[in-house]
UniProtKB/TrEMBL annotation, chain A:
PANTHER family: INNER MEMBRANE ABC TRANSPORTER PERMEASE PROTEIN YDCV. It is found in: Cell inner membrane; Cell membrane. Keywords: Cell inner membrane, Cell membrane, Membrane, Transmembrane, Transmembrane helix, Transport. InterPro entries: MetI-like, MetI-like_sf. Belongs to the binding-protein-dependent transport system permease family. This is Binding-protein-dependent transport systems inner membrane component. GO terms for biological process: transmembrane transport. Residues 58-246 form the ABC transmembrane type-1 domain.
TrEMBL record, chain B:
It is found in: Cell membrane; Membrane. GO terms for cellular component: plasma membrane. Gene3D superfamilies: MetI-like. The keyword Membrane applies. It comes from Herpetosiphon aurantiacus (strain ATCC 23779 / DSM 785 / 114-95). The chain crosses the membrane at residues 7-30, 62-88, 109-134, 154-178, 202-227, 260-279. This is Binding-protein-dependent transport systems inner membrane component. GO terms for biological process: transmembrane transport. Residues 66-278 form the ABC transmembrane type-1 domain. Belongs to the binding-protein-dependent transport system permease family. It is a multi-pass membrane protein. The lineage of its organism: Bacteria, Bacillati, Chloroflexota, Chloroflexia, Herpetosiphonales. Its main location: membrane. Keywords: Membrane, Transmembrane, Transmembrane helix, Transport.
């Protein structure tokens, strides 16, 4: 297969699911085995958009994912700098600490933390859910920023410092502009890992916090295809939007986006 | 001074990670050993592990879930690794940059597994899009003529969902290697007269093997412990270990919690062993 064809095939495979969701969400009276719906209607989709439960799920997902991204960048950036730019004993150990949670299943970490969070009165709170989402999110933020820092020339910072810039000015005028693509990509990555998280939200949210994946799961067990399709569209719309905005950064190794199974 | 400052940057992230992960591990182990303070039960025992491994009720369920998890993870990992290698070998020689492929593969990684599984369900179920097409073309007379491909007892739906989802991941891992060193070696081999098969076997495979094999271990360990896809496009029997663990844990009978913990601990232990083996293998090379 030629390179072009492969890229086109993968792009096609991205469009197919979205097309399927669109058809199922807007089709009316589409009974098996009809190949094409009798008519199109946006009624069901709009009803989902207006549904208070869906709105609440969307809002809480948004609050959690945005909060987690901010928190992860705030915690992850200084950590990645130390890990990548300095030599010290125990560096491998710290890397291990950030690597382990990426392989231990979230079912295992979630059921372990369920009681801990209940005792700390964090279960069923938005902050508790954000905190637990840091387990899958923070490692990828640290790894992404770390691998971008490997391409980073620190001498620009030294130069600014020699010329008399304060540490804050150095960050604001030198490091931030140079690392912006990577910080943006890490933030988007954090958002989407948190946005897609089901098991941890379920185990810590305790039914009080409703996120979109939970609504999708309950729709899936109900088996109403047009409902599943509508929710899937609502679920992935913000992700597509965000990714569209950063897509051009994703092709460059200097951004450091760490792939995730 | 410099030492102290450097730790300051690392401390918050490490402390939070260690706190969350450590307490999860600690409480997980304690509860799997029967320490259930909310039931006023504080005696430690291996009863939950015994019930899970050889118990009358759960023993059979555990072993069949273990086998099923191994089958699904191995099949999906092997399938996606082979497809990825095939694709990379067909493009490696003609390409200098991989920008487009890397963007589109990254976009694939952004689709959540749960949504991907739902798309597969709408596509492949017995009243899905493919069945409708089959009907229109005249291959089927009724929905049940269409093969059960999702929510089937062999886990075909789960495996298909994972293969299609993990190929882009492995492509990205492979591209990272190819980008650094691939083309020059292949061109040298070509000018020395190596044919296509020789180039694949003697140049491309040795180049890609380390990263592709470590990537496959990550894929395996992810699939082995993931909950979403088997919960959405799997069946209740046979089920995977992750769904068994969570169901036991959410069981209204609080005694089942210890058993759910034991299942999840054993499952994590297997994953850690596999990852540890992969790590040692990489160190030795």
């Amino acid at each position: 297969m030629s390179y072009r064809k492969l890229v086109l095939l993968l792009a096609f495979l991205l469009i197919v699911p979205i097309a399927i969701f669109l058809v199922y969400a807007f089709a009316q009276g589409w009974f098996f085995p009809a190949l094409w719906p009798e008519r199109w209607d946006s009624e069901l989709f709009l009803r989902q958009l207006r549904d208070p439960q869906v709105r609440r799920g969307f809002e809480q997902s948004l609050v959690v994912a945005t909060g987690v991204s901010g928190l992860a960048l705030l915690l992850g950036y200084p950590a990645a700098r130390v890990l990548e730019l300095q030599q010290f004993r125990g560096r491998g150990l710290i890397y291990g600490l950030f690597f382990l949670p990426t392989v231990v299943p979230s079912v295992a970490t979630g059921i372990g933390l369920n009681i801990v969070f209940l005792r700390l009165d964090l279960a069923g709170t938005l902050f508790g859910v954000m905190l637990v989402h840091l387990i899958p999110v923070l490692p990828y933020v640290v790894l992404t920023l770390g691998s971008s820092l490997a391409h980073y020339d620190r001498n620009y910072e030294h130069q600014a410092a020699v010329l008399g810039a304060s540490p804050w000015l150095v960050f604001w005028r030198v490091s931030l502009p140079l690392l912006l693509p990577s910080l943006v990509v890490a933030g988007v990555l954090a958002f989407l890992i948190s946005w897609s998280q089901y098991v941890l939200s379920l185990l810590i949210g305790g039914g009080k916090i409703i996120t979109l994946p939970m609504l999708l799961f309950s729709a899936a067990s109900g088996g109403n295809y047009s409902l599943i399709a509508s929710l899937s569209l609502i679920f992935i719309a913000p992700l597509l939007l965000l990714l569209g905005l950063v897509a051009r950064y994703l092709g460059s190794p200097a951004t450091g986006a760490t792939p995730r199974p | 001074m410099a030492k102290w400052r450097s730790w300051l940057g690392l401390a918050p992230a490490s402390i939070i990670m260690l706190g969350l992960f450590g307490s999860s591990l600690g409480y997980g182990i304690a509860q799997s050993l029967g320490w259930l303070p909310f039931l006023d039960q504080r005696e430690l025992s291996l009863a939950a592990y015994r019930n899970v491994l050889v118990g009358q009720q759960l023993g059979g369920q555990w072993w069949s879930a273990l086998l099923f998890s191994l089958w699904v993870s191995c099949a999906a990992t092997f399938g996606s690794a082979c497809i990825c290698l095939g694709l990379l070998s067909s493009i490696a020689e003609r390409q200098q940059h991989y920008r487009g492929l890397s963007i589109v593969s990254n976009l694939h990684l952004a689709i959540p597994h749960s949504v991907w599984a739902m798309a597969l369900l709408l596509m492949l179920s017995q009243s899905g899009i493919l069945a409708r097409i089959g009907f229109a073309v005249g291959w089927l007379d009724q929905p049940k003529d269409f093969p059960v491909l999702v929510r089937d007892r062999w886990g075909i739906g789960i495996i298909l969902a994972y293969i299609t989802k993990e190929v882009p991941f492995l492509l990205l891992i492979g591209l990272a290697t190819l980008r650094q060193q691939g083309r020059a070696y292949l061109l040298v081999a070509q000018s020395l007269g190596a044919n296509r098969w020789q180039r694949l076997r003697l140049v491309l495979w040795p180049l890609l093997a380390p990263s592709l094999i470590s990537g496959s271990f990550l894929v395996f360990s992810f699939i082995f412990g993931a909950y979403e896809v088997p919960a959405l496009v799997g069946v209740r029997y046979p089920e995977m270990l992750a769904t068994m663990a969570l169901e036991l844990f959410l069981n209204p009978d609080l005694q089942a919690r210890a058993e759910g913990m034991a299942v999840s601990m054993l499952m994590s232990l297997i994953i850690l062993a596999v990852v540890g083996l992969a790590w040692r293998w990489r160190e030795q090379r």
